[in-house]
């Protein structure tokens, strides 16, 4: 919350290394199929250019595992950036080699360039100090604007911050202020919606949120572990037998804290994990053998929507059904529409819920859609993110 941003420093005439998240999806022809992450970085890039910085952009793309692989080159990113900025963004042929240094030396105030995929070096993910120092030698200031990788202590996200003045870009600044503000100083009632398939993936999040929220809605596959722990019949539904005691402990902790946990009361259940299976609507604790829960039912959709309408602060992480199947997307759509109608602070905590609300065309109706998947989860858990912790505090 107390980190310096690009607005706190003078960048004119300085070479500025900016860690972006350009890990965009590509089709089999190497064409970008979704440029949201590139577009999200533009405010920081344009601000630096407009203020006379000499901008050196870096990112990873995919998992090349420490060696050069042409299919993971940032060439498509350089091309799309050139189109969006309406000027050529040259791409260095290497990361810390002669091409990167030569291009960096030639930069004038307001110029921008891109170096190759930092993960072409195995030292990147190992956070090798020597490699971080080589990256730092390209510039005089470091800016981290890649929230999606801020939970990774890599050379370009954490290591380089030890060798240069290090500040946040607008994207990370926004994540810290909006998500951090909601967690630390929410307007009540504060409601969290936690979905996804496994309790084990979200234990830390639930534990942390039970200290902060008034109401916790639990949906998705993880709900069946809770239903079984409460003595319900869940048929063939996904669940974790080894997390039953934990589910009971979380329910007890919620009761002790005065937090209402809201679970589905009915489910759409199918006789196979497919869009076209035979499906029925059943009581959430009476799913018959041979059927598995695939979505929340119509009564639950109304209950969840009512809870959402009353809240003043909402954090949502994880779909409440198998929303990739159109037959079982109604529950997640109902939640998305209810959140979009809410006039309070509404935050979508990255990952599948962010993809769902974007796909449904409702992303512009909420306060904030986080750009991070794993980073958002760890932020909601209250874990310190290395890529943010390494940045300079405002009083430094």
Description:
The protein is an alpha/beta fold. 36% of the residues lie in helices and 16% in strands. It has helices at 36-50, 75-85, 98-106, 122-125, 129-136, 170-184, 199-209, 222-229, 244-257, 298-310, 330-341, 351-359, 374-381, 386-389, and strands at 15-19, 54-58, 112-114, 141-144, 166-168, 190-194, 215-218, 233-234, 260-262, 266-270, 279-283, 286-287, 292-296, 313-317, 345-348, 368-369. Strands 9-7-6-14-15-16 form a 6-stranded parallel β-sheet, with helices on both faces. Helix 1 packs across helix 2, helix 7 (199-209) packs across helix 13 (374-381) and helix 8 crosses helix 9 (244-257). The longest helix is centred in the first third of the chain and has 15 residues, at 36-50. The radius of gyration is 23 Å and the shape is elongated. The two termini are 14 Å apart.
Main pleated sheet: 6 strands, parallel
Which percent band covers the strand fraction? 15-25%
Strand order of the largest sheet: 9-7-6-14-15-16
Number of separate strands:
16
The N- and C-terminal alpha carbons lie at a distance of: 14 Å
Query: Secondary-structure element sequence?
Result: EHEHHEHHEEHEHEHEHEEEEEHEHEHEHH
> What is the overall pLDDT average?
95
The radius of gyration is 23 Å
How many helices? The count is 14
Shape: elongated
Uncertain spans, ≥5 residues at pLDDT below 50? none
Helix proportion range: 25-40%
Q: Given the helix and strand composition, which structural class is it?
A: alpha/beta
């Amino acid at each position: 919350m107390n980190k310096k941003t690009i607005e706190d420093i003078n960048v004119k005439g300085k070479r500025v290394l900016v860690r972006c998240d350009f890990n965009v999806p590509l089709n089999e022809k190497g064409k970008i199929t979704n440029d949201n992450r590139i577009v999200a970085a533009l405010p920081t890039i344009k601000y630096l250019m407009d203020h006379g910085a000499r901008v050196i952009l870096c990112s990873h793309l995919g998992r090349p595992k420490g060696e050069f692989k042409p299919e993971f080159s940032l060439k498509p990113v350089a091309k799309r950036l050139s189109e969006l900025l309406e000027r050529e963004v040259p791409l260095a042929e290497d990361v810390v080699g002669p091409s990167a240094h030569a291009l960096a030396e030639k930069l004038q105030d307001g110029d921008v360039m891109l170096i190759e995929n930092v993960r072409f070096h195995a030292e990147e993910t190992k956070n090798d100090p020597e490699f971080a120092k080589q990256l730092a030698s390209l510039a005089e200031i470091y800016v981290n604007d890649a929230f999606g990788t801020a939970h990774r202590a890599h050379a370009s996200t954490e290591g380089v911050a030890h060798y240069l003045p290090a500040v946040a870009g607008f994207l990370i600044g926004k994540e810290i202020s909006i998500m951090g503000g909601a967690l630390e100083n929410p307007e009540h009632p504060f409601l969290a919606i936690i979905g996804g398939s496994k309790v084990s993936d979200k234990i830390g999040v639930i534990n942390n949120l039970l200290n902060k929220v008034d109401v916790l809605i639990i949906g998705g596959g993880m709900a069946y572990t809770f239903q079984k722990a409460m003595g319900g019949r869940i048929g063939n539904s996904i669940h974790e037998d080894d997390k039953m005691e934990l589910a009971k402990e979380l329910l007890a902790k919620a009761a002790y804290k005065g937090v209402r946990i809201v679970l589905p009361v009915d489910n759409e259940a199918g006789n196979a994990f497919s869009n076209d299976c035979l499906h029925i609507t059943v009581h959430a604790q009476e799913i018959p053998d041979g059927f598995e829960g695939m979505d929340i039912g119509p009564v639950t959709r109304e209950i969840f929507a009512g809870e959402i309408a009353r809240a003043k602060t909402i954090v949502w992480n994880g779909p409440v059904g198998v929303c990739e199947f159109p037959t079982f997307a109604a529950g997640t759509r109902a939640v998305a529409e209810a959140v979009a109608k809410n006039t309070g602070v509404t935050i979508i905590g990255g990952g599948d819920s962010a993809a769902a609300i974007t796909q449904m065309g409702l992303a512009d109706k909420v306060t904030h859609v986080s750009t991070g998947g794993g980073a958002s989860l760890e932020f909601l858990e209250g874990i310190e993110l290395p890529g943010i912790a390494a940045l300079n505090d405002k009083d430094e």
